[in-house]
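Lab notes, practical 5.
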Amino acid sequence: MGRSAAAPVAMAAAGAAPAAAAEAVEEKTEYDVVIKDPGPKKIEVIKVIRQLVSLSLTEAKTLAETADGKILAAVGKDAAMDAKKKLEEAGAVIEVK
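Output from the prediction step:
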């Protein structure tokens, strides 16, 4: 009889552990778009940066030349992926964090 009573308790405890682990791993909601390298077509990358954020030509050029410079900070996943796609099409190496 001791076994039959212990088995359901053990099963309930085992079922609760994966649920707790799932709650601990939360979906990230804010992303940073970081430029690693402007690539060979720096002028095209600068144009895209200016389209994405309101910067002067000089500021956009400086940002394009800055390794690990944040193009966008704390944006949604869709906006981050869209910016990454546009910048990579222009020739830049981009990382979304």
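Observations recorded by the TA: The mean pLDDT is 82. The two ends are 54 Å apart (CA to CA).
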